[in-house]
Amino acid sequence: MAGRPAITGLWTTAPLFTFVAAPYGSVPLESDTDPAARADVPCVVRHYLRIVTVIATESLSKRFPRVTALDRLSLDIGPGVTGLVGANGAGKSTLIKILLGLSPATEGRAAVLGLDVATSGAAIREQVGYMPEHDCLPPDVSATEFVVHMARMSGLPPTAARERTADTLRHVGLYEERYRPIGGYSTGMKQRVKLAQALVHDPKLVLLDEPTNGLDPVGRDEMLGLIRRVHTDFGISVLVTSHLLGELERTSDHVVVIDGGTLLRSSSTSDFTQITTTLAVEVTDTDTHPDGTAVLRKALAAAGITLHARVEDGLPGAGHILLVEATGEETYDVVRDTVAGLGLGLVRMEQRRHHIAEVFRPEAAAQPTEVQAR
Amino acid sequence: MSIETTGIQKDTTRIHNIGYRNYEGPRLGRAYARRSLYSQSLRGAYGLGRSAKSKVLPMILFAVMCLPAAIIVAVAVATKLKDLPLDYTRYAIVTQAVIGLFLAAQAPQSVSRDLRFKSVPLYFSRPIERIDYVLAKYGAMASALFVLTAAPLVILYVGSLLAKMDFADQTKGFGQGMVSVALLSVLFGGLGLVMAALTPRRGFGVAAVIATLTITYGAVSTVQAIAWETGSPGVIKWLGLFSPVTLVDGVQTAFLGATSAFPGEAGPGAGAGVVYLLVVLALVLGSYAVLMRRYRKVGL
Prior knowledge:
The complex is a heterodimer. Chain A is an alpha/beta fold. Chain A has helices spanning 8-13, 30-33, 35-40, 43-50, 92-99, 121-127, 143-153, 158-171, 187-199, 217-232, 245-251, 269-273, 292-302, 329-342, 362-365; strands spanning 55-63, 68-77, 81-85, 107-112, 115-116, 128-131, 205-209, 237-242, 254-259, 262-268, 277-283, 307-308, 321-326, 346-352. Chain A is elongated and about 75 Å long. Chain B has one domain. Chain B has helices at residues 2-12, 29-45, 52-78, 88-94, 96-116, 120-124, 130-162, 167-197, 202-229, 236-239, 244-255, 270-298. Chain B starts with a helix and ends with a helix. The model of chain B is unreliable at 1-10 (pLDDT under 50). Chain B: It comes from Streptomyces maoxianensis. Chain B: The chain crosses the membrane at residues 56-79, 91-112, 133-158, 178-198, 205-228, 270-291. Chain B: This is ABC transporter permease.
């Protein structure tokens, strides 16, 4: 392609980027250099160990005359479902274009499935599926006809294209309606067809750009479940973008937050949401304890359990909910025993996870203030 | 009893969920995808593989295109003519309105759909690239026009042989006619696709193609007629450069032994013919360049 900056010279001088020649992104294993060690490691295990990086970028920048879409973005994304979160204009779509080898980076480099985006665009696109954010389906053909055509565009022979289309449409949940023209489909069904065309050639990675856009809550949940299945059942890695943080924490193994073209945060969803599990506890008042909540707070503090000051203001019954920091299984037992000991009725005890949204307000997430018994 | 029927139904309608299967078969890559897109677009131009409704117009136009040839052949055989009443090279000039209609209907169908419904990014996120897409679409449109314009010539040729006309003479004329319609197909196909690709609205595309073909031809032939009447036959051959049909007419007059349809048969000679050929070449390459540019902007 014309106009691509000549960065090939950099590659040879950068030993960090060993994945260029490897089928997947890889870390150098001892067994790679030592033939004796190689015999000891079973083949399957070695294969598993080698799949470390699905997408890797290093100080990737994309500048347009007026705006900088990506600014020295360095990412390392492994297999699984990865959420790419950012506000509109954060650089998500630009990143996808670069990863598909369709737009040259201004500087830096990127590799997908171990292939350099600057030189192996076609090879990448053969093994990657892409679902655009916008509507992209012609209304006058059926889902089957359309997906068969797209399968052939991915290089599948005619018979395989038809078989894979039937399979894929069934897996995304389209049955009899697949023979009807797409024009009559609901938004949810159209989204499924878009997902099917991205999966029909059995890619190793799919890039899903805002797949839940325009869906109602039920459709959203179904789509998120489907995306989860793409990885767990189909074994395909997923990069899914959204500007909604909440829905990605349920779906993704890993969440990358970018803002203004720079990396804001990258960590697994368990880091985001489960390092400290917060329990919401609500109890009844009894005749012996007219203010059950206050009594319980005092008792729990005495038992050495940390209580959070943050109460969800504005919600009904907010004053009656205690936020308890659970450090492990035993916390649940302590809360149960304390409540029972006081003779209170336990209305609820549920996990209240931190939300990814808190990365945008670090002051709220950081240092939860400990409450002293009032 | 109800248990029995459900038992039977269960047996016949059992669905085996075999789970997800990976695809291990061949991936035929870019060249195959380009060929597939070409054949899909070519078939699509005649409504094949599309709804019954979209077959109607191209098939009618194809029949209209072939009907005069069949009549000519019938008359020639019945009256034992020594030569065909219409030259092979002249046929496309006479039936240019039909060719124009076909192009106006099918060029937008071929490219505007992908643009309007934004399917283009789906192609470019696959192994095929911009050049493959443009070549496949251009090739398919030119081939569709060639099928349309060459079919009646084949009918004429077969008919002339049945009527036992001079074999060498007819074969030469047929060959010249085929080269001429091939040139016309490539030229018209390119111009039609450019106009269709510049607007995602199908209606505008249809109007633009018809307008370009008829207005330029109308203007050129009118001015040529005026020039003939006012006694300046020298400009006639240069005026022909300004419309697609007269361009093809000029090239075949200069190089393919055709009789010019210009007033007073004042077509270009070999010298001016080179200019005609260069203009045709420039238009074909220009169409290709514009299409490439157009798809650079819309890709993803």
